[in-house]
Amino acid sequence: MAGSQNIGESSDNPVAINVTAMVDVIFCLCIFFMCSFHFKQLEGKIDTWLPKDRGIFQGAINNDLVKDEVRVIMRWTPPAKDSQKNGREAGGTVRKVAQNNPVGSDEELVRDILQIADGYNRVGNTSWPLVIDATAEVPWQDVVHVMDLCKRNKIERIEFAAPSVPIQ
Amino acid sequence: MAKKLQVQEDVSPNLIPMIDIMFLLLLFFMLGADMGQRELEEVMLPKALAVKEDKEVKGQKSDRLTVNIYHRYEKEVPCQAFANHEVCRDDKHWRVGIKGKDYTDSDKLLAMLKKEADGFRTDPKNPKFSERGLMIRADASAPYGLVQRLVNTCAKAGIYKVECGAARPPDKDLADTKKG
Prior knowledge:
The complex is a heterodimer of chains A (168) and B (180). In chain A, 33% of the residues lie in helices and 17% in strands. Chain A has helices at residues 20-36, 63-66, 83-86, 106-122, 140-152; strands at residues 43-49, 70-77, 92-97, 130-134, 158-160. In chain A, strands 3-2-4-5 form a four-stranded mixed β-sheet. In chain A, α5 (140-152) links the parallel β4 (130-134) and β5 (158-160). Chain B is 32% helix and 19% strand. Chain B contains five helices and six strands.
């Protein structure tokens, strides 16, 4: 009886389409995209440069260069095997600015950098670069952290120490 | 004898709302999937607060090359250090990839970078230097030595405009840092 049927029932639509196959395909597609989906992390960039005329000077620094750059030297100290026995501190990245003593915290590092930078700025040299000179064992995260600290303190010209290429 | 009345009820679920939802889900996952980015390998980028948003103008020829430094897959080389998010210092575990191809070999990398840089040597006074930009997307667990090798190769090829890929920490971490 027509009166007892609900709206949208099959009797309203004389040409019924079998949607089962379509549902199956959509399910498969959904599973494929769900499995291959990963949330994209917010990526950005930090601008740096390679110095055209400065090389790598781990330890011994060329005094001429010290006059117009701020060089952050980073080296890795491996953890001591008997660190738990004698209480020596664990390994990590040792950072120092130019010929200063190694620093213990980010604040000290920034203070040392700004101190040298102030000296340059006072004599009118505002185009000094900050050169990162790290050894191969230093974690990349630590190097990026130093770059991040510099950028946060409005130091824009960051360079990586690279083999010296003389300007023609 | 009285006959038992048998009523056969046709129970068919209404599939239309489910199909609608499935379509919406499908649309969401299809739009969210990034299939076209073969240039970017899966890398856990180092975290940095002062990152600049990376805006590339779509449709324009990019003058920047992306170099990925990424750890080989867990199935290929099981690495305890990398699994624990520590620095993996085994050079054999790392790969240098450009546009989906492996350039771990230094000579191959230098040849490729020189070829890329040649089209951008615009300054006749300094033909050694190229205006070609380069983005380093290195994993946070990579040792600096790998980046250093790449940087040295860039210097040999005359590429000096270098950008480093970094990830902005989630807003929660950002708030914690600011409080600290």
